[in-house]
Amino acid sequence: MRTRFYPTMEIENRIAYLLVNQVLNNSNTVSVNDGEEVTLRKSANVQKILDALGTTDSDFLIINGEDGERVGYFWLIWGNGQDLISDYSASNESDFQYMADVIDIVDEKIEAYVIAEAKRERRAKRARERSKNVDSLDNYEAAFPNDIS
């Protein structure tokens, strides 16, 4: 998927995956333009689409409808973290609403993921602190065996 490492890579890859899946769930196809050339044309293969992303600092994820006509595009800028989807455009008002709805769905899923990750990190931190406190008590007992009765 991506040839360069960014600290924001995990969340961006998750966003890209959710975005591509959401678009493909509606019988669309996706083309990828890396800002220099179209690297993938009208694909419905999630892995091929994801593999085509991230070869440059930004990509245009071009959405094609069931009829093959262009619906719009999402502009992805790598390195922006949760703001990976930097802009989008659509061919008409109903397509614009569709694109906005896709972003809303992806945003809701990402927010839930971020909250769950924060909770997981807090639990892990508390477990490390409890372990550290037990180690401290063990060290104290070893240093002063007669102190604790």
Average pLDDT for all residues: 87
**What is the number of helical segments per DSSP (H or I, 4+ residues)?**
3
What is the N-to-C succession of helices and strands? HEEHEEEH
Structural class: alpha+beta
Low-confidence blocks of residues: none
Principal-axes shape call? elongated
Largest sheet: 5 strands, antiparallel
Helix content: 40-55%
Tell me the distance between the termini.
59 Å
What is the spatial order of strands in the main beta sheet?
2-1-3-4-5
Instruction: Evaluate the radius of gyration.
Output: 23 Å
DSSP summary, beta strand count: 5
Question: What portion of residues belong to β-strands?
Answer: 15-25%
How would you portray this structure in words?
The protein is of the alpha+beta class and 149 residues long. The protein has a domain of 94 residues. Helix content is 50%, strand content 21%. Helix 1 runs antiparallel to helix 3. The chain is elongated. The protein starts with 8 loop residues before the first helix and ends in a 6-residue tail after the last helix. The model has no long low-confidence stretch (mean pLDDT 87).
What is the topological layout?
Elements: H1 9-24, E1 29-33, E2 38-43, H2 46-52, E3 58-64, E4 70-77, E5 85-90, H3 93-143
Antiparallel strand pairs: 1-2, 1-3, 3-4, 4-5
Helix pairs in contact: 1-3
List its traits.
elongated; 3 helices; 149 residues; single chain; 5-stranded antiparallel sheet; alpha+beta
Summarize the structure.
With 149 residues, the protein is α+β, with helices and mostly antiparallel strands. The protein is built from three helices and five strands.
